[in-house]
Amino acid sequence: MLVFCAWAAILLISDLPDIIWNPIFGQAPASMFWMKVGVLGLLLVVCSVWKRIRPLRQFAGVMLVFYLAFAASTWAGNTPWWRSRFSGPQVSFTVGYCGAYIRDLGVAFAVIAALWLIKRRRSEFFLVKGQLDAPMEPVPWLGIRRGESWRTFGWIFAMAAGLGVLIPTALGLRLTSDALLRAAPLLPAGLLFAAVNAFTEEIYFRASLLSTLPAVIGRTHALLINVVFFGLAHYLYGSPPGVIGFLMTGFLAWLLGKSMLETRGLPWAWFMHFVPDVIIFASYAILWRT
């Protein structure tokens, strides 16, 4: 029952309803988001009164905070005051993305606050260094054998992930000397935004789930839920979108979640997320105002 309810909830609040709705009826209405909030609110109430699924209460509560914080962030971003300062043709690359990531940090901090109230220790939701050289659990199909550590594999995979994003991104861009010269001053800001994006997504996509679900439904289901939730979030708006985007980000979510659970910390997950994000934000800089 716990596994069924966790999976049902994550599928209903994920982008899956939007993915199904859009090809049939067009852009999903704003009310669909609030239906997802309603699902989380209902789950939280049911958890409070039904003992059998009460262990899912932390999961429901943290995800409800995440969605409400996201709604507040969206509202703030649509206000005339915010739009006049952080959007429009007159706004620079740095200022425009600053506006987006100030709000995104607000969402991440709201989730951190919720996790702190529930867990009381940062180590319980991975906001610590952890064991950087922790041994890896073997994954034969990925070539990970017994005795390997995250200190070695983390660097290897981060570079491979960066290369995996660099090749299709470079092929999809028309790289000219003029474009590179225009983008060069923007690259330091791109590095900062890549770092912030990796941090915020690791908090509200990964730590939120992996600190509340493994003890309740088991590590395997928790990791798979993380894979599906993160992958579906990039199906419509990822780089690239669609099935390829889902598979790429889903695999990334699985590996990043594995690193969190095995090292009991955030650094490797953040770093392996940050490196490919650097390529993505560099491409945004190259395409800015073109």
Describe the structure.
- The N and C termini lie far apart (52 Å).
- This protein has helices at residues 2-13, 16-25, 31-49, 57-77, 80-86, 93-119, 150-172, 177-183, 187-210, 214-217, 219-233, 242-263, 267-287.
- Helix 1 packs parallel to helix 11, helix 4 (57-77) packs antiparallel against helix 6 and helix 8 (177-183) packs across helix 13.
- The longest helix is centred in the middle third of the chain and has 27 residues, at 93-119.
- It has 290 residues and is mostly helical.
- The radius of gyration is 20 Å and the shape is globular.
Strand and helix map with partners:
Layout lengths: L1 H12 L2 H10 L5 H19 L7 H21 L2 H7 L6 H27 L30 H23 L4 H7 L3 H24 L3 H4 L1 H15 L8 H22 L3 H21 L3
Helix pairs in contact: 1-11, 3-4, 4-6, 6-9, 7-13, 8-13, 9-11, 9-12, 9-13, 11-12, 12-13
- Number of E-state strands: 0
What is the SS-derived class?
Answer: mainly alpha
Please give the largest β-sheet.
none
* Helical residue percent band: over 70%
Provide the low-confidence segments as ranges.
none
Number of helices: 13
State the shape: globular
Task: Provide the descriptors you would attach to this structure in a database record.
13 helices
In short:
By secondary structure, the protein is mainly α. It is built from 13 helices and no strands. The chain has helices at 2-13, 16-25, 31-49, 57-77, 80-86, 93-119, 150-172, 177-183, 187-210, 214-217, 219-233, 242-263, 267-287.
